[in-house]
Amino acid sequence: MSRATIASFNVKNLIGAESEYYRFQQYTQEEYAWKAAWLADQIVTMDADVIGFQEIFEETALRAVIAEADDMGEESNEVAVPDRSKRYRKKAIFRKLSYAGYRDAALAFAPNVNDGRAGNRRPGVAILSRFGFEGTPETIQELPTPLDIPFQDMGGGDGGHYRISRLSRPILKARVPMGGAVVTVFNTHLKSKLGEFVKPNGAEFAPEADLANYDAVGRALGAARAALRRMAEAWVLRREIVAELKAGNPVIVMGDFNDSENAVSSEIIAGEKPFKNYSWMLRHDAKASNDRYSKEENETIQEAIAAMRLHSAEKLFVRKSLRDMVYTSAFGGVYESIDQIYLSRHFVPEAGGTLGEMEYFSVLNDHLTDGSHAEAPYNKLASDHGQIMVHLVLGETR
Q1: Less packed terminus of the chain by CB within 10 Å, N or C?
Q2: Which pTM was predicted?
């Protein structure tokens, strides 16, 4: 039996000091030092074996934060962890207090192909793994063939299509040795809910961006575009997940979904939930009112859907612990979970998994506010997301 901890951490705009990332936004030397120290402290607190990071503008800045975390953690070990001369050093409490560090860990960074010059930067994602990687991690952002989603007009005939040729942010795919198996880990950051507005040719900005001439209908259409893009990106991720599951590989998906677990985009990623019984349903090719799926076909359908389905770690935890609320984001008084970790059934014994199971789920969210004071220094420098972590027991299921 062994254990592994898997975490997701949206760091909120990690970049070096005096580097403009978005228009007129940058950190002073003092602000950057504060932010780096805060991020390092969160990493020490999590002490996770695998961490998926989002909103990374510069790999060098992330490496510096990890190094600072190691310095902090090792200093803590000096004080809190007994040396070999102490008979009580093997007590469980000291294993909890000990920080394992990342001096020998592997780091994969996926820059954003949409990244531009100062003031128009776009962040990437990264995966940090104490277990290393099997092979070279893969970045998915530029689509070899554009994704065309066809629509049928409700009155019949061609309803046009929606196209994406690249994702707003990269998906990072890595194979991680874990518990005697190799697990495919995806780290993703889907399109946000911020409206996507079209700038006319030759214009300085999109008309909907001019809040002094507020266009409620145009801004609603921008939100619809953002939702379409987010769901299309979720489908691209889903296609990759299904390919891994069909190959027999355990899968863990983490990241900032920019939607709750009950949103359509999250359901696309997880896969559909099977009905309890398909033998009452009319067949797809029914010729009569009693032409329904057989009991044998029901079992086949159930297994086909279950084998491709992912399970929300948060939901597993809520069901196990009877806890009624977890949140990773707070804005304008709305508290919700938009950061997720999903597990394939290999880690869910009640779904037939034998590789391991989740024994606990934790979230670091005490730093979150409801966004009422968006310009407050703490809001600017700390992450605006909670950090989530899954605690797995590997090689033993109940």
Answers
A1: C
A2: 0.91
- Identify the domain containing residue 155 by its residue range: 2-271+308-394
Spatial contact of 334 and 327, defined as CB atoms under 8 Å apart: no
Give the dihedral of Cα atoms 212, 213, 217, 221; nearest 10 deg.
-70
CATH classification at residue 51: 3.60.10.10
**Identity (one letter) of the amino acid at 1?**
M
Average pLDDT of 380-389? Answer: 86
The CA-atom distances, in angstroms, between 361 and each of 23, 342, 343, 388 are 37, 12, 12, 7
- Nearest by Cα to 359 from 298, 300, 313: 313
Please count the structural domains in the chain.
1
Cα(279)–Cα(270) distance, integer angstroms: 24
Q: Which of 59, 56, 169, 159 lies closest to 107 in space, CA to CA?
A: 59
Q: What is the total residue count of the chain?
A: 398
3-state helix, strand, coil in the chain (%, to 5): 30, 30, 40
pLDDT of residue 384: 82
